[in-house]
Amino acid sequence: MAATLMAANDSIFLQTLQERFGYRLGRFEQVGERISYPLALTTSSEQVRRHLVVIGNAAHALHPVAGQGFNLSLRDAATLASCLQSELGGPNVGALKILQGYQQQQAADQNNTVLFSDSLPKLFGQTSSAVALGRNCGLLALDLMPGLRGRFARFGMGMATREAGHG
User: Fold this and answer.
1) pLDDT-based confidence at 65, cuts 50/70/90?
2) Intra-chain end-to-end CA distance of the chain, in Å
3) Does one domain contain both 68 and 15?
4) Given a cut of 90, is residue 122 above it in pLDDT?
5) Please, are residues 162 and 112 in contact by the beta-carbon 8 Å criterion?
C-alpha cells in the first residue's frame, strides 16, 4: 500500500488521504513532498561501553503502538539515572561495571516492551478469520477479567517484572 501511494499522482494521493482521515481535519487541498518510513523493529547490538550508554530510540526503535518506544525511553533514562546516582561526581561514574548493571536491570523491561510493540501490530494486521477469532476472544477475556486486564496493563506499562523496578 505504501509503495502504491508513494507512486500515485497528487490527485489520487489526496483522495486516498481524505478517505482515510475523513473530514475531521477539514478538506485536504494539496500535498508536499512525500517520504515513506517503513515501520520496522530496530535494536542496537550493543548498548553500553565504558563511559557510553545508548538508550531510547537509539537503542531500540519500535513500532509507534501506544507510545511504547517513548515510554521505554523514559524508563531507560530513569533506570540509568538511578544506577548512576551513587557515583555522581566520582571517578567511576562511567565505569563499565556500573553501566552493565544498568543494562542488566533494564533488560527484562526492554525485552518485554520490544516483544509487545512488535507483536501487537502484527496480530491486529492479520486478516485470517481464525486469527481474528482468537484476537476477539482475547479482547473479550480482557474485558471480562479485571485481573487479567490489570496484568496486561502492567505489562504494557513496563511494570511486568520486579527486575524492572518501575512498579
Assistant:
1) confident
2) 40
3) no
4) no
5) no
**Domain span including residue 21:** 1-36
- Listed in sequence order, the residues at least 6 apart from 31 whose beta carbon sits closer than 8 Å to its beta carbon are 10, 13, 14, 17
C-alpha dihedral sign at 92, 96, 99, 100: negative
If one compares 151 and 89, the residue with the highest pLDDT of the two is 151
Alpha carbon distance 7, 112 (integer Å): 37
Q: What is residue 19's predicted lDDT score, i.e. its pLDDT?
A: 93
Question: Which one-letter DSSP state was computed for residue 33?
Answer: -
C-alpha cell at 90: 566520582
SS3 labels along 87-104: CCCCCCCCCHHHHHHHHH
CA angle (75 as vertex; 91, 85 as ends), nearest 5:
25
Give domain status of residue 162, yes or no.
Answer: no
Q: Same domain, yes or no, for 111 and 130?
A: yes
pLDDT at res. 163: 54
Instruction: Work out the number of other CB atoms within 10 angstroms of the CB of residue 5.
Output: 14
For residue 113, what are the contacts with CB-CB under 8 A and spacing of at least 6?
60, 62, 68, 71, 72, 158
